[in-house]
DNA sequence: ACCTCCTTGGAGAGCGCTCTCCAAAGAGTC
DNA sequence: GACTCTTTGGAGAGCGCTCTCCAAGGAGGT
């Protein structure tokens, strides 16, 4: 094995030109005489030459890859069960492939793996980082910033930081949910929030509460969930015990909404006739749920693609200042509310 | 910008030793006097030195990354909607992280992107490839093999090839499903197969039919689906029209099973009392489905991890012959059958 | 005390590529 | 026809690292 493969040198020798000329033909830098180009291309064809990536990036200081860092709290690879990360990946890949950039997937869920990520970027193994982090306390943004690594976040950082990010107006999303529930005439509504150490969870809840309060509902019972169907199930159970008369529920993501619907149905309650349920995200489970979920749409793929775009752009022009792009949520009305 | 960062040379100068010595300390090759080691480590600390990845891999001819190639037929990033790929990713990442190897995610769904994958590997951008391919006609395995790229497949290749792979005994899975349906006393069973250009689909169906035939049911009506909930929905609809008396259904994955259950319920049929439904995979939707699906478990994460393990092993010993690891499916009984 | 063997540090040759200089040659200009 | 200006190919210096060789010094044997 030890594939050595033909080098620039080999091609140059066969074509009877210098290394520099071959390099120019390969990279399309500067003018090269068309005849010579032809000769060189033949030589390349003949040898089956492919430029060596390591050698190239040693001098260009570019790798053509970026790190896609997923910093879940949970035990590592469980995160992929959540459709959210699949959607992020899809959006990122979708954009990057148009630019010939490749994503390296990294999980950052422990001190150790976080250090690995920083190390990886400092080594120049990737040109920049896309950081999908939920928890407000995540330390990676500042560490990457300190290491001078071009970084773009999905979701604003826990503390103000001169870093680019894309985000959703989660509060507006919460308001949308509240408006729908009130529009349906619900009078006793509860909420199942996401983990409260996640900014998005806080924001969704804040927006929801605000809108309710503004309309004469100063108090909304809230149970904290964990963004999983099981946690939504449990939360709905508690809500039902404490407030049996509930007729409207806002769950901070679709998975939890699904869990809530299940409990409701198990208790012989009809959705949406007896209890209306609004989810959040508009991911696959929202459609699969019976009844299909009315939900607040988060355009995850588009946001992820934008995140990738912002990074690639800042890679091309490193002097650029950080930007932020905030997306607007949208209410998708289906059957559950 | 243009972070230059300290080099080996810098560290060597500060520590008052040669480059070679610093390299030895960093890589732990050969003995180095403990005192000297201490000095060198201090210098490293002081300068914040990190080895340059490109330079290193230029000489070692190793990158510490592998390509995780997902070759769906569908329009690219849609694949991530299918929980299957999320599970594969989880399994791969889970194993690789223990070995300090990083996966680069690539989609191969067009001629162009397939060529990109080959190019990427030939450039030495990654040390090997993990290829998750469903379609039997996929050309990548042979192209990668021809290029001398260490490769491991998820699912056996369409044509016999000297390449390592992991796979499931899909036929045994089909038999398991048939056995369950017959055990429940079903007399009129139908099947919703996966796309028939996918080997796994063929095998699941073959196993299922065989087991049915062996038990006195020579004919099983089959409708081909596309592994999506919508296609399962459509397929069940047709099955119901053509065979209204059906009392058992085998769907070749959980997504389609879910679609089938929905149709059944819409038609006022009870699952499993009127019609028993068996799915395949045991992915998240199987649990989320109402009723929860009885299904044939494919240990995707474990298989993906094994695939990664086989690749890493063959990277360490390139002279090794190809291996194959076949996993056994398992029936998971829930409520739908 | 001499010789051999083992340990350990340094020198330096690349790995394959890009890119800055230079030089040569051709095209204009007056 | 002598001059400058532009175009285009070649030479060669690195990019930062690993690793083979070599030499120096100390330990052990006789």
β-strand percent of chain A reads 15-25%
Low-confidence stretches of chain A: none
Strand order of the largest sheet of chain A: 2-1-3-4-5-11
Radius of gyration of chain A: 26 Å
The outline of chain A comes out as elongated
Query: In total, how many beta strands of chain A?
Result: 12
CATH class of the largest domain in chain A: Alpha Beta
Assembly classification:
homodimer
Q: Helix/strand-derived class of chain A?
A: alpha/beta
Give the distance, in angstroms, between the N- and C-terminal Cα atoms of chain A: 62 Å
What's the CATH H-level superfamily name of the largest domain in chain A? Response regulator
Q: What series of H and E elements makes up the topology of chain A? A: HHHHEHEHEHEEHEHEHEHEHEHEE
Average pLDDT number of chain A: 92
Tell me which CATH architecture of the largest domain in chain A applies here: 3-Layer(aba) Sandwich
Largest sheet of chain A: 6 strands, parallel
Helix share bin of chain A: 40-55%
Number of helices of chain A: 13
Work out the count of structural domains of chain A.
3
Of all chain pairs, the largest interface belongs to: A-B, 62 and 62 residues
CATH topology of the largest domain in chain A: Rossmann fold
């Amino acid at each position: 094995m030890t594939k050595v493969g033909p080098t620039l040198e080999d091609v140059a020798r066969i074509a009877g030109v210098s290394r520099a000329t071959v390099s120019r033909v390969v990279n399309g830098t500067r003018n090269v005489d068309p005849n010579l180009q032809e000769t060189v291309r033949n030589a390349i064809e003949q040898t089956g030459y492919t430029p060596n990536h390591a050698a190239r990036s040693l001098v260009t200081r570019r790798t053509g890859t970026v790190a896609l860092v997923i910093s879940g709290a949970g035990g590592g690879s469980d995160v992929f069960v959540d459709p959210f990360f699949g959607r992020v990946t899809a959006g990122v890949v979708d954009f990057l492939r148009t630019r010939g950039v490749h994503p390296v997937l990294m999980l950052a869920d422990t001190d150790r793996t976080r250090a690995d990520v920083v190390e990886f970027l400092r080594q120049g193994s990737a040109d920049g980082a896309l950081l999908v982090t939920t928890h407000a306390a995540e330390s990676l943004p500042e560490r990457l910033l300190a290491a001078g690594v071009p970084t773009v976040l999905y979701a604003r950082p826990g503390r103000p930081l001169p870093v680019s990010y894309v985000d959703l107006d989660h509060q507006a999303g919460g308001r949308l949910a509240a408006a729908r529930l009130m529009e349906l005439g619900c009078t006793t509504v509860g909420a199942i929030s996401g983990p409260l150490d996640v900014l998005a969870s806080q924001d969704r809840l804040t927006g929801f509460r605000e809108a309710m309060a503004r309309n004469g509902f100063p108090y909304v019972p809230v149970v904290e969930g964990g963004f999983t169907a099981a946690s939504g199930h449990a939360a709905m159970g508690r809500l039902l015990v404490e407030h049996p008369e509930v007729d409207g529920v806002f769950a901070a993501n679709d998975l939890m909404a699904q869990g809530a619907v299940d409990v409701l149905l198990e208790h012989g309650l009809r959705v949406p006739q007896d209890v209306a349920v609004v989810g959040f995200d508009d991911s696959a489970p929202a459609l699969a749920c019976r009844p299909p979920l009315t939900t607040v749409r988060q355009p995850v793929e588009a946001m992820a693609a934008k995140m990738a775009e912002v990074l690639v752009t800042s890679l091309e022009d490193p002097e650029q200042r950080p930007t932020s792009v905030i997306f607007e949520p949208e209410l998708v009305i289906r059957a559950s509310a």
